[in-house]
Amino acid sequence: MERSSMSIGSIIGLGVVIVVLYFGMQAMGNSVRLQTGINYLRTGQTSLDLRALARQDAVNAGIDPTLFERQINQESGFNPNAVSPAGAIGIAQIMPDTARGWGVDPHDPVASLSVASSAMAKYYTIYQNYRKALAAYNAGTGTLNDAVSRCGSSWETCVPGETQKYITVIMGS
Known about the structure:
Distance between the termini: 81 Å
Shape: elongated
Strand content: under 5%
Structural class: mainly alpha
Largest sheet: none
Number of domains: 1
Helix content: 55-70%
């Protein structure tokens, strides 16, 4: 009877290599996240630079990284544990029903930043206006669409005061 030349240790080692390669390939879809992970391994850093990640997610989504950074700062002050009185959760202040619809755990700041930047890119594509995209994110598309229907080019006067302030703080005017 012929015996295999691979020991149990070799088989386990090969399995580990395959798993590492698999996750490495998954991560390569986003080189910034891969570089961030490599930096953590190399330096032993345990905290994540959420501002840098937000800016990179914005660039990846094709939206203005400075405005997106301001938006997340306005949402939560970059606090991944934030919970609003209305029930919005996490760094991007995503409502639980919205999080389910977007397929994201709002407690996960990395996933939340990614999905929030994608949502903003989608809203910008739909509305062709960053102020309207912010209103859609903050007040919802239904509220924004109703404001546009009722008030036309003066739509901002017809969204809730909180949303008006939100837009002004982020846009700077």
